[in-house]
Amino acid sequence: MTATDRLIASLDRRWLAWALLAWLATAIWFLFDRWNAIYWFALSDTDDNMRMMQVRALLDGQGWYDLRNYRLNPPGGFDIHWSRIVDLPIAGLILLFEPFMSTPWAERWAAAIAPLLPLGVTMAALAASVRRLVAPHAWTLALVFLLGAGAAMVMFRPLRIDHHGWQLAALAVTVAGLANPRRVRGGLMVGGASAFSLAIGLELLPYAAMAGAIVALRWVWDRGDARRLAAYALSLGGGTAIGYVVFASEANRVARCDALTPVWLSVMVLAGALAFVISQVRAENRLVRLGLAGAVGAVVVLFFVIAWPQCLGRPEQVSPELARMWLNNVREAKPIFEHPFRMAFPIAVLPLIGLIGAFVATWRARGTPLFAAWAPVALFGLFACLMMLWQVRAGGAAQLLGVPGAVAIAWLLLRWCLARGNFVLLAAGAIVAFLGISGVFAGLAIQYLPIDRPTPYQQTVNRAGNRCPFLPNLQALNRFPAQTVFTHSDLGPRLIVTTHHKAISGPYHRNGGAILDVHHAFDGSAEQFHAIARRHGATLLVICPNMAETTVYRARAPDGFYAQLERGQAPDWLEPVELPKKSPLKAWRIR
């Protein structure tokens, strides 16, 4: 046996070890590539900063079920709709590192390493799926394509400590469960992963519902899948109940619609119980099974409508004013077709090619056992593509679900090139397969094309958004005694992470009253701002000129208080305070 043959055999036999080795190499590269951001503790997203504050509160002794943040909207604070699940690995890593380094550096290393953990789960799950769906050695291509999935991979890079990476890992496990020929194990994987994701947050609730529908359809198609359906039902209902008992905060013990509360607990337990009941029915006719599955769906929907009518609208349950002034303007919540082509195209390429590949593979697998595995993956991919037409934030999940189909096409292309016995053709086919199908080519090429390039104005806004949250610029505010700072909602979470101050609001719907106060204060007159600031006990005003949020104030209220500040028209009760010369921030003491 040649060395090549031994390597190929090892890639098949020890695939999991090789996949973990690939993960380790990727993690090392990520840490190297992001070192500058790690050094400056550049938690760039507001959710990452809030996650760090939640972890700090836990380590400082705040109650397990108390997720109220007391440094936003003081003195009472506000309850966030998250859970403690994602806090655990971050907190554990901080405690692990603290005996060997200072707490700030322990936080840096924890925030750098924690997002890489769900990446390992994702890589292993995708490798397992593609081994079963395409070929024993094709899993290597799956990892390559995953690394080219920019919208998905950004959720796993160092410092991205919010919950999205873990939810994508749960989604990858769901795909592995759908593709698993072992019915009980596959059902447990899908139900358990769905329950885990729901206990973290509701962002992937539609995917969990779709996964359940696919499991039910497999049972409708094949009576032998009753064991898969039963395992799924028990793990979904039981796992959701465990997640609620262990992780639901005190604020989530009431009938809210935006998290795992009694609302979704009751829905999932009922759905699991009814699905288990019909799995035990010996119905040999497909139409009978379809009727039973439809009846379960109808009962669950009817229960939801009757028991929780307040949740038929937006799960955030925000006021029309807050939706109009803030939530409807959140960019990631807009459909992909409302975004510039320069951003939308690289996101959509991989999911669309993956969808084509999945349907081609499903067609080729008809009449074989693989059809029952490929059909669910194709349906899941179609659903993910449609989700992007609702919100662009679905792009990461869509790219992840597009990987198996993209690998299927690439594998067909490589086999065709191999059959021709031409090394040059094989090399060219490999390059085309990687660049064209992974989406890397689309993301790279569009940077050099004169399509939707940022205007000078957009570049100014982007520059302000990068400079103002920069650690030294905000830490300069620590020269002032700890106090409540009135600043933009998008800057609030970063401010409380990097300084000893408190802030009024962050961009979270349960903080809606404070968000509206900030908007009203900056949109209205100087007197109105003064009254709102005094009501919140704010004694320091900090703004970031040209930050994205401020452009909304300028456009909406050209003569409002914020627009006056930018023009240098500060009232006499604002006393300018000195900041470092090159600071992009401006600050005043509120007298």
Automatic annotation (TrEMBL):
<feature type="transmembrane region" description="Helical">
    <location>
        <begin position="396"/>
        <end position="414"/>
    </location>
</feature>
<feature type="transmembrane region" description="Helical">
    <location>
        <begin position="136"/>
        <end position="156"/>
    </location>
</feature>
<keyword id="KW-0472">Membrane</keyword>
<feature type="transmembrane region" description="Helical">
    <location>
        <begin position="259"/>
        <end position="278"/>
    </location>
</feature>
<feature type="transmembrane region" description="Helical">
    <location>
        <begin position="343"/>
        <end position="363"/>
    </location>
</feature>
<protein>
    <submittedName>
        <fullName>AcrB/AcrD/AcrF family protein</fullName>
    </submittedName>
</protein>
<feature type="transmembrane region" description="Helical">
    <location>
        <begin position="229"/>
        <end position="247"/>
    </location>
</feature>
<feature type="transmembrane region" description="Helical">
    <location>
        <begin position="15"/>
        <end position="32"/>
    </location>
</feature>
<feature type="transmembrane region" description="Helical">
    <location>
        <begin position="290"/>
        <end position="308"/>
    </location>
</feature>
<feature type="transmembrane region" description="Helical">
    <location>
        <begin position="423"/>
        <end position="449"/>
    </location>
</feature>
<keyword id="KW-1133">Transmembrane helix</keyword>
<feature type="transmembrane region" description="Helical">
    <location>
        <begin position="370"/>
        <end position="390"/>
    </location>
</feature>
<feature type="transmembrane region" description="Helical">
    <location>
        <begin position="196"/>
        <end position="217"/>
    </location>
</feature>
<keyword id="KW-0812">Transmembrane</keyword>
